[in-house]
Amino acid sequence: MRKVFTKLMPSIFFLMIFASCDKEVDNIGYPKYNQKIVISGFLSPDNKVNKILISENLSLYGNRFLPQPMGTLTATISDGTNEMSLDSAQFMNGFTSSDYPIIEGKTYTITVKTDKGLAAEASCTVPLKRNLSLEIDTSLTVNYNPDYGSYTYINADIYFTDTQGTDNYYMFYCEQVTYISKWSSTPNIFEISGPEKAYFTDNGKDGARFKMTLQPVGVGSDGDSSFLKVYLLNTDKAYYDYKKSLDNYNSGDDPFTEPSPVYTNVTGGLGIFAAYTTDSLIFRLK
Amino acid sequence: MNQYIHMITNTGISLPTDLWVPTTDRIKPQQSKQVALGLVKDFNQKDLSLSIEGYYKKMNNTLEYKEGATFLTFDDPGAASYINWENNVTSGRAWSYGVEFLLQKKEGRLTGWIGYTLSWTQMQFDSINFGRKFFARYDRRHDISVVATYKLNDHITLSGTWVYGTGNAVTVPASQYYSYQPYPGSYQMPSYSMGPNPPNGMYVNDLSEKNNFRMAPYHRLDLGIQFHKIKKWGERIWEISVYNAYNRKNPFYYYNDTKTVPTYVYEGPKRVLLLIDYGILRQVSLFPVIPSVTYSFKF
Questions:
Q1: Stated pTM of the model
Q2: Does B181 contact A246 at a Cβ distance shorter than 8 Å?
């Protein structure tokens, strides 16, 4: 017995000291969860419906994804003169321009409160509508393959002119919309890549003519008709900061990358309340 | 005072990584100004002295990693050729102040000291933490060290050291929320079906306060006994010592994890057993109790 014990002793010793080098934290308090209101709102005079979503943050520890009741919500949106109450249905569905018009150059403030004492507020100013002279310049490439025949690509450059003398923030988006009636009554929509970063500023290029090259767009033989839809958003700084922070976001779990937070302009809560105006063009491919 | 070498450290909860980098054309040397005022009192017993010193130090051109900076990529070994560390850092300011107490006994059979430092270290960078001040990772509110050596006789010496330090300040999110990525095109904002994975966005952690969390305090007791013997050519010393004598599991780093807990819930009148994932924080420690035997010879 003594022999067995002597043999086992080193193993027991090493197990004892090394076994629990990794353990659940139980000797200090976890980071304190403070329930917060999360506002997601992007206002534009060009939207038929402006949508504002009110949600909440969820604890990372304990039973995750178990929402704590926020209580009864009350919310208002105001431009300093006109105020409108948002009811819970409108939190989800937005409001139309006839309910409450969004006007360029005006500052809007959203205030959200709950009967549990939570409160959040955020403001945004709608950028002025500018003459950006949005244009498209296209060329055609036909590729021939002996097995599959010829295939046509459109190469497109998008141009616009920045407004001089002001700090401007832009976001670019392009999609191809193709209608194929023999397959479906709803169109096929594909995002078309443009510049490396879809959001950018005029910093260092004040008043310049910008050029953005799209990836070649295929024009198949199946479609009845096909269009390129180009959207250029003139956004406020908050929208730009938010997009940039989402792009750079790192949760901190990667051991070799610094944690990077998502931008918020909501006082007392989280999320984003931003505004933009839209310039767009439609180019018929087929 | 100028310093031409900078230490940059990560602030996440995971593997601590300190990197020393030089001053370059783009990176200015760190500058500091410091004032200190101290008082030393020798007591009647000449071997006992107490010193108290207060200090205030202001630093400029202090370096930190930019938010989101990647400084090592294992999945892309060639990354080092195009990741320029100078693009990954930003400079700012720092302040450090505090007071230090030191009680020393220099002579007699029992020698040693008791030291205590109360300090604060804060930093501020325009492009980090939305420009707000935050506590440095190595901000240590309390730092205690007790060192004692007792000479039992001419052949045997006992020694003990106990150290205590407030835990490092690291960034640990407490919550997460859904962050929308609006599309200006045909899809625009989602139709708000708030399932676990709604479209056009992602769940993000609330990292709105940098270095908001204190790791568990670091403390440890080391004990030792030395056996001295004078030999013909010098002194032979056998030492038996124990590092971290009470096997304190000091945190090296933390990581987020989940554990599945069987939980009874009521679905109407029916009691149902569900397996629910609970979010937890796990700690990894290094260096448990480590005994050692040392032989040395002085000549």
A1: 0.79
A2: yes
